[in-house]
Amino acid sequence: MKIIFLVIRSTVLHGWFFGFKLHLIINDKGEIMLCSYYVYEVVKGESNHNGRINYSRTKNI
């Protein structure tokens, strides 16, 4: 089983950060067992990426 994490962050106007997280769990056969993603925004000056989650979804496949 493999766990894959992908995090993307960028700076846009007025110093706000927008991010995207993708979590995949893949079995030994290469099949996706779980897929979850989060879209969030963080106000400038916050040190962590646990800002307000605008959208999230988890799906067991």
From TrEMBL:
<dbReference type="Pfam" id="PF13612">
    <property type="entry name" value="DDE_Tnp_1_3"/>
</dbReference>
<feature type="domain" description="Transposase DDE">
    <location>
        <begin position="14"/>
        <end position="35"/>
    </location>
</feature>
<protein>
    <recommendedName>
        <fullName>Transposase DDE domain-containing protein</fullName>
    </recommendedName>
</protein>
<dbReference type="InterPro" id="IPR025668">
    <property type="entry name" value="Tnp_DDE_dom"/>
</dbReference>
